[in-house]
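Amino Acid Chain and Its Fold in Token Form
===========================================
Scope: a single protein chain, as residues and as a discrete description of its fold.
Amino acid sequence: labelled as such and written in the usual single-letter residue code.
Position: the record begins directly beneath this header, with no further notes in between.
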Amino acid sequence: SSISRTAKKNRRRISHDVHAARFHQRAGNELPSSSGLIHMTTTTPAPMPVALQRYWTMWNEPDLTAVRGHLDQAVTEAVEWVDPLHSFVGRDALEDNVRTLRTDKPEYRFAITSELDAHHNRVRYEWHMMRKHRVLLRGFDVVTLNDLGLIERVDGFFGELVPLTGEASASSDG
């Protein structure tokens, strides 16, 4: 019934609002409000956490001696980092990966290319890897922050999601 569906949607929205409020409070952000409820939608982008700013500064840092300083302010000691090509744990391993990339491909730059979407200490966003303003790789990350706001996990994906077609699409309309 439509009343039951509306009630479920409202419960989900309120639950989301509570979790979003907690995320913003821990991050020290002012809480946006309307009618006493917190609303986070794709039209209201999440603020950029400081740790995420430092993380992306690190990936673009031309001075290899400065990489560790950014890293120490961005991620936990036991950060987990996974993408289609790599999987490792720890600040030292992430630093090695960044230093290798910056040494082998110093002209590469990375940029976040979408608004941030956040809930439950997780942030997702799209990014591009570029060389001379040409996009070489598109991807998106889902980043998990700990209660102190440091990155404890990065799950990276390459490329764009492919829409369902044919029978698979029809069966999901259910």
Notes: Strands lie at 75-82, 87-89, 108-112, 117-119, 122-131, 134-145, 151-158.
